[in-house]
Write a structure and sequence with these properties.
This protein is about 55% helix and about 10% strand. By secondary structure, it is α+β, with helices and mostly antiparallel strands. Helix 1 runs antiparallel to helix 3 and helix 2 runs antiparallel to helix 4.
Length: about 240
Amino acid sequence: MEPTYLRERLAEEFALLAAAAREASPTAPVPDCPGWTAADLITHVTHVYLHKTESMRRGKSPEPWPPDLSGEEPLAALDRAYAQLAQELATRPPEEPSPTWYEPDQSVGFWIRRMVHETIVHRIDAERSAGSTVSPVAADLAADNVDEALTTMLVYGYDGWPEDFAAVGHLAEPVTIVVGDSSFTVRQTPEGVIVDDGRDAGATVSGEPVDVVSWLWGRGGAASVRGNAQHAAQLRKFLQVATQ
């Protein structure tokens, strides 16, 4: 997706996240993150934003980490962290080199995309923690979210650390995820995990874009599973390993 478009969506998603964070009680639980409170969620997102900003500035992962934010009001720290991140992403060309954990793409553009989808997931968390109505996700953005999770995280992660996935089982049948007009079929082969647009799945996950994204990231929601639910559950186990 075009970097300017993604930066605009990041700004919108952060505005939703920040509004929900202000509405939630700091001690409110985050329903899909056991043991987390809204305050923990705010701190996590703040650290993520600051870490990516410092990685771009320094050209390497910052150490030591995380910084001490105890003297700063949490919501103010969140706003500051986002403002710094947005500034870095807006002033650096997407093709500029930047260290990332994904070896095939060491660029600022990687972080533009990654931070949009990080923010989508955590604003859903914040809205649920606040007891708010969960805002929709545009179909094209949800499709890109699914593509990133499957190709950048799952396929890449399986290639690099197959033993971690072996510990949670085997994907016996392909599983298709449908979001808007896009479909992604995940299958495990002797060579690894692949993603294509086939429809020969043992299970199909579909629904409103926000619900499909929520399902993909282990959150609640109303995504529908047709076919063998055990195959879909196994894909969820794989995704949990890939996105941890």
